[in-house]
Amino acid sequence: MHVLIVDDHPGFRTQARALLEAEGFDVVGEAADGASGLDAAALLGPEVVLLDVHLPDLDGFEVASRLTDGGGGPAVVLVSSRDGSDFGPLVGRSGAKGFIPKAELSGAALRALVQ
User: Fold this and answer.
1) Helix (H, G, I), strand (E, B), or coil: what is residue 78?
2) CA 67 to CA 65: how far, in whole Å?
3) Helix (H, G, I), strand (E, B), or coil: what is residue 99?
4) What contacts 8, CB < 8 A, 6 or more positions away?
5) HSE on the CB side for 76, CA within 13 Å?
6) Is 113 exposed, middle or buried (0-12, 13-18, 19+ CB in 10 A)?
7) Which of 16, 24, 29, 115 is deepest in the core (most CB within 10 A)?
8) What are the tens digits of pLDDT across the range 7-43?
9) CB-side neighbour CA atoms (13 Å) of 61
């Protein structure tokens, strides 16, 4: 499964890449903000976008909405260091498949949401 990681923290991107690659995912790219994430998704065509809620330009909900608008785009899974309950119905309305707290990211958790 081809994954794009969009997060403004280089340390998290590095950790997420290592974890997902160790669990059989193919990380095809990384981006540090929403605009770059949209560009990378268009260029790389990932099956899954692991997307931080808090980005320096566009928030993750807006990016998720743009990626999933009209269907046929990648599966989007939102992540944050905050708990998913902090975001109420925003996750569902964004078009994302779901939410994983950063501390609980695993290949199994990601697969469960996108398969």
Assistant:
1) strand
2) 6
3) strand
4) 32, 33, 52, 54, 55, 56
5) 28
6) middle
7) 16
8) 999 999 999 999 999 999 999 999 999 999 999 999 9
9) 9
